[in-house]
Amino acid sequence: MKKKRGSGSRGLGKIPNVKKVFNTGFLLSIGIASIAKENAESIVRDIVAKGRLNEKQGRKLVSDLIKRSKKERERVRRLLMR
Prior knowledge:
mainly alpha
């Protein structure tokens, strides 16, 4: 008698550890946030260079974006650690 595919416990060892997957995702989000920060700074520099914002406004905008990013990363981290 042939055994049905997918039955039994065979292959369960290949299921990734959920916490490890989430941790990897979290680290990836930090990397993306770092790239986003660099992009935000570059975009704001261009806006300042075009005269749409002064330097003080540009620095504040970048600072606000970084704060929001940190809050969002922390929120995601808390969700993943539940």
